[in-house]
Amino acid sequence: MVRAGVVGSTGYAGYQLSVILSQHKNVSIVFLSSHSYSNMKLSDVYGNLTGILDKVCIDMQTVESKLTEIDVLFLALPHGQSFDLVEKALSAGVKVIDIGADYRLRDYKEYEKWYGVTHKLPNRLKDAVYGLPELNRERISSSSLVANPGCYPTASILALAPLMHTGIIDNASVIIDALSGVTGAGRSANISSLFCECGESVKAYNIACHRHTPEIEQQLSDVAGDKIILSFTPHLVPMSRGILATCYGNLKKSISQNELYDLYRSYYKNENFIRITDTLPETRYVKGSNICNIALRVDERTNRVIAVSAIDNLIKGAAGQAVQNMNILFGFYEHAGLDMIPNIL
Amino acid sequence: MVRAGVVGSTGYAGYQLSVILSQHKNVSIVFLSSHSYSNMKLSDVYGNLTGILDKVCIDMQTVESKLTEIDVLFLALPHGQSFDLVEKALSAGVKVIDIGADYRLRDYKEYEKWYGVTHKLPNRLKDAVYGLPELNRERISSSSLVANPGCYPTASILALAPLMHTGIIDNASVIIDALSGVTGAGRSANISSLFCECGESVKAYNIACHRHTPEIEQQLSDVAGDKIILSFTPHLVPMSRGILATCYGNLKKSISQNELYDLYRSYYKNENFIRITDTLPETRYVKGSNICNIALRVDERTNRVIAVSAIDNLIKGAAGQAVQNMNILFGFYEHAGLDMIPNIL
Amino acid sequence: MVRAGVVGSTGYAGYQLSVILSQHKNVSIVFLSSHSYSNMKLSDVYGNLTGILDKVCIDMQTVESKLTEIDVLFLALPHGQSFDLVEKALSAGVKVIDIGADYRLRDYKEYEKWYGVTHKLPNRLKDAVYGLPELNRERISSSSLVANPGCYPTASILALAPLMHTGIIDNASVIIDALSGVTGAGRSANISSLFCECGESVKAYNIACHRHTPEIEQQLSDVAGDKIILSFTPHLVPMSRGILATCYGNLKKSISQNELYDLYRSYYKNENFIRITDTLPETRYVKGSNICNIALRVDERTNRVIAVSAIDNLIKGAAGQAVQNMNILFGFYEHAGLDMIPNIL
Amino acid sequence: MVRAGVVGSTGYAGYQLSVILSQHKNVSIVFLSSHSYSNMKLSDVYGNLTGILDKVCIDMQTVESKLTEIDVLFLALPHGQSFDLVEKALSAGVKVIDIGADYRLRDYKEYEKWYGVTHKLPNRLKDAVYGLPELNRERISSSSLVANPGCYPTASILALAPLMHTGIIDNASVIIDALSGVTGAGRSANISSLFCECGESVKAYNIACHRHTPEIEQQLSDVAGDKIILSFTPHLVPMSRGILATCYGNLKKSISQNELYDLYRSYYKNENFIRITDTLPETRYVKGSNICNIALRVDERTNRVIAVSAIDNLIKGAAGQAVQNMNILFGFYEHAGLDMIPNIL
To answer: Where are the beta strands (DSSP E) in B213-283?
Structure first.
């Protein structure tokens, strides 16, 4: 039985994580914690959990005193707020899975440039492993600090990795055009996330400057063995959950759509959370699950490949992947606690 | 007073057209017609119009006998259904504005390839003018047959024309990634358009094979003076109205974002329905209006320009543009009947 | 030309009011004002208005100095914040139309009980007229202080007034079960109004204690000539605009549905914003307009009448009705500036 | 291991049932069947199930030949289509759980009056048990034919039963005002269920004539020991899942809200799917689960009680309750396969 603590359990990702952990047969939740709702039950914030998960959220200060009682600490915090706690946890021998952004970029200067804050724990970055199991399973298994990927990067990297690995597209030609549901903006009381402000409308945002860009580039550069610079455009769409990434690359040589499918099916042949489908993905096909759907099209007119992926941003894009990483860290069956069927409706 | 007839007035575009025409001070609606709802009032189908626009829709057969009573015929039909009627209307000296797709492509073979039906009126194509006023105003003014642009093409061409005109991007590099609301699928009783099938989800569809592609390419080729082949990916998003087009091109030479804005502002300096904004477009900013919003970003990391446009697919993308074309045809103020303020909520 | 000032122009009702006034041929907007967005353009807050209504919102302090420049002051403020300004405006001879709740209840003690704040202007209440033109047109026309009705009360009172007037239902039996879109909660950054908190869900709220209850009772008591106590239950539904009120009453004597329709058609025979329809109302039938739809059903099994009404909460339930009141106050055609066609889509 | 067959597995209720059964440890699905999608995989219709539930749906004709292979037959068909098959199944000793409406009303004349079709199996009605476990658990356990309750009746009866049982309200005063998501209209390609027709709008429908009315009255009459006639008004709201029932009754004697809560908590003290909450229900609190939330308010001003309940219409209102009934029929733990946590997002 792994003893787990969750920091930031009342945000959307933290909520989802708490629910998944509460159902996980190998996990005992030692504490949930919250900044805004400390000393309240999780079910006071998420009324669906009344009678199901009524655990009281401790405050952030109390977390430190509980580090000796846990084996793994999950953090679901805004960037820049994890440093002190992560240092203490690691020093105490607690494994850390950070759902936030603080340990995803290897180069702290890149982090500081994109996030605009000082990185207080640069010396821990060399030990951090980017927690995308489909690419880094081995390194995750022996890590103490797992940097759980962002939601856009999860969808984007999984869609593009086989292409980059094979080297059949022009590395300078990659464009990722992605759509996200509104949970991606978190549970903060922002006017831009109001029902009447984002319903019945779509927009692009943070064009050419979204913070998930360097994270995608770093991982795909690893896969390609080349320095990848790409364009990434996020859009907000009026739905709660889900990410769809439509990814473009120029083919360096001719390949049929069937060959492309073979390539992907081979690359992901042992991956149970990757579902390569002939049908184009819809986010509802993966909603509520840890599954990533991927479909492919070759555009013979333009000699481009288009790879489309869909995930649930809160699960494969956050909490589910964090639990998948925990399963790897502690030697559990990688599916443990993650066999949710997508709830299309 | 122009005497107008509308064919297909109970579909979404036809409905919108009927409403706009009913408010137009220079227009008298001689007839509305409908295939599915003939002999019913328009307000029986669109309950909002009760007491406002209770005109009975005549059936398609009766339309022919009314051609002598009108000056202009609007058609809002599925592709392939306009041929007989258009021939009769033109022969009778009636000007025709077709909201459908039958006269947009100059080459009937291209039409037959993409649409999979026989073109029965190829000899009329040379006289048809692609009704995008911002590009073709002069030719529209003297035309008898206006091929009203598709919704995706309107947004895409307007976003890209200044770039193609100036020749600052690599013509082979153009990618258009576009999002559409569900009215784009029409008012047919298809399961895929049900609330529970397209709500809370997004998908890409018709990748590399959408019928609006050749139309975009034809017009941008004209602007560029070069044969343009591009990638176009449509997505369905859970909202009723609106199109957002995110368009990418590789810069052939360096240009600052400010210079790019100057270029667009100059190109569209006399266009009152084009709104160049610093802020990125949201479809709600143009909903209910004939306006097209465009914003620009230069991605210095990848040396790409990203142009984003937003329109209301039923207005600037269909009925509003049709009325704009009518205004040009008959010498009215181009804004007549089209001064609707976007209704953000 | 009436010179108008708007206080609170960046909330949803204030926004809608500003747009309607800007299109009104008899109105000159002297100032818009805002607490949260002072010194910003209205179009900075509502991007749809860029190039259309770019007027800068003055701050609240500056409003006072402008009172001498206007004929009518509109207020769209949270309750309890209007007192000082209203006193100054009235003293300066400016007519006041308050979209808020501060002057709707004749008895300041009732106000203080339901709203929990001190009424600072009780002596002005006797001069205030409840601005529901269909009931109080004459008194409105000679008033200086119009208390614009709440959204739920507008829908509820209009649905029930003919019944109460005729005395055919048991006055103790009235139940109003109403549904509201999310703009009813205002444009405040509250978590409960987030897309992900109120989308895909419905709830009842403030059962037996909603502040619109005494306002409905006061007006219906006037109509009935009897003290009315009723049940009112508001619900929040995932849409932006619209109110639907389903109203129940026990019939004291038998009446057919046709007779009931005759009664309503007669009662509202001169009202152009009331639309009595055989078809049951849908909020989309009135969205974007100043129209109130009403339909009736007699349930012979239970001997009850059910009257259902629908309005756009921001127009007939707020800004549109305020302009209707202004038209009455200044002797304009009551429809002036209010002929918007409902935009079903 | 119970061997189960499902008829009508591609409608929304049938889909949900198929998913729940596929996860149920005591059930083996012998066949799924479909009229519209026979010989297709369930996952061809519900893309979320690809790789998870790829069972091919047999056609309706083949079902008969499979009756000998199953212990229980679930039917999810439109009313009037079950008679032949149910007779054959019962004759073959197969237990039947009908999610449709054909066996809910004891009196076949009532059925024929409300549903407008001939009941072909009136002699089986005396053996049918109305499958609301909270009221009829004992009789269900020994039944061969379970008539699974409608969605509105489940929410309404559960909200009102304790009141009717106790006799503290005037039986003639009951009004049920209910809201339903769009899955309630089924997965038929009807224009009224299109995204653009039911999004951003609400309506009441079938006032005083909805077919669920007699079913509610029959059950509440049983509980009250009195003939109950009540008003029931359904509304359609723009969400996929969920029913909220707001129920009114006039108190015959004074009771405090706390006493009322005690009454309900006592009445449902052994019910694990009933959750009595202080907080008013929101449908998202029960979405995806078999739970029914109930909250209570006493309106002292009008001397009324308001009971509000929320369920997921496809689960507690259909498929989940069907499985709950199966669990009772076969002696399984009543929660088996039904421990889904409500997925608020």
So the answer is: 231-236, 243-250, 274-276
CA dihedral C112, C117, C122, C124 (to 10 degrees): -120
Nearest CA in chain D to C241: D200
Estimate to the nearest angstrom the gap between the alpha carbon of D177 and the chain centroid: 17
How big is the B-D interface in CB pairs under 8 Å? 57
Q: Could you report how far apart the first and last alpha carbons of chain D are, in Å? A: 34
Query: What DSSP line would sit under B74-112, residue for residue?
Result: EE---TTS-HHHHHHHHHTT-EEEE-SSTTT-S-HHHHH
Nearest CA in chain A to B205: A280
Window 306-345 of D: residues touching A by CB (8 A cutoff) are 314, 341-345
Q: From CA C291, how far away is CA C285, in angstroms rounded?
A: 9
Catalytically annotated residue among C57, C151, C198, C292: C151
Q: What tokens does B151 get?
A: 């919704």
Two tokens at C238?
Answer: 């995932």
Interchain CB distance below 8 Å, D231 and C237 = no
ipTM metric = 0.97
CA-based nearest residue to C286, from C324, C327, C338, C248: C338
Token readout for B305 is 């320009």
The first and second tokens of residue D197, run together, are 């027709």
Which of C 210-249 lie inside 8 A of A, CB atoms? Answer: 238, 240
Contact D195 B187 (CB under 8 A): no
Cβ–Cβ below 8 Å for D343 and A48: yes
The distance of Cα C266 from the centroid of its chain, to the nearest Å, equals 23
Q: Choosing among D183, D190, D196, which should be mutated to test the B contact, i.e. which has the most B CBs within 10 A?
A: D196
A191: chain C residues, CB-CB within 8 Å: 187, 189
**Mind listing the pLDDT tens digit for each residue in B171-180?**
999 999 999 9
* Euclidean distance between CA atoms C70 and C5, whole angstroms: 6
How distant is the Cα of A341 from the closest Cα of chain C, in angstroms? Answer: 20
Helix, strand, coil percentages (3-state) for chain C, rounded to 5, are: 35, 20, 40
Average pLDDT, chain C: 98
Label the pairing between strands A292-299 and A304-311. antiparallel
Q: Is C199's CB within 8 Å of D240's CB?
A: no
Go through C36-67 and write b for each residue having 16 or more CB atoms within 10 A of its CB, e for each that does not: ebbeebbbbbbbbbbebbebbbbebeebeebb
pTM of the model: 0.98
Which helix (H) or strand (E) is A88 found in, with range?
A: helix A83-91
Residue A126 confidence (pLDDT) above 90: yes
Q: Do residues C71 and C326 touch, judged by C-beta distance below 8 A? A: no
Residue whose C-alpha is closest to residue D175's, from D219, D132, D135, D234 = D234
Of B181, B208, B240, the CB nearest to A301: B208
Question: Which chains have 3 or more CB–CB distances shorter than 8 Å to chain A?
Answer: B, C, D
Contact D234, D206 (CB under 8 A): yes
Enumerate the H helices of D24-72 as residue ranges: 42-45, 60-65
Q: Chain C contact for D284, CB < 8 A?
A: yes
The single-letter DSSP state of residue C35 is S
Instruction: Measure the CA–CA gap between C109 and C119, rounded to whole angstroms.
Output: 8
Is residue C196 among the annotated active site residues? no
- Is C195 in the A-facing interface, judged by CB distances under 8 Å? yes
Contact C196 A238 (CB under 8 A): no
Closest by CA to C100, choosing from C84, C118, C82, C87, is C82
Band (pLDDT 50/70/90 cuts) for residue B60 is: confident
**Which residues in chain D are closer than 8 Å to B12, comparing Cβ atoms?**
196
Closest CA to D155 of D173, D180, D127: D180
pLDDT one-digit tens code per residue, A2-48:
999 999 999 999 999 999 999 999 999 999 999 999 999 999 999 99
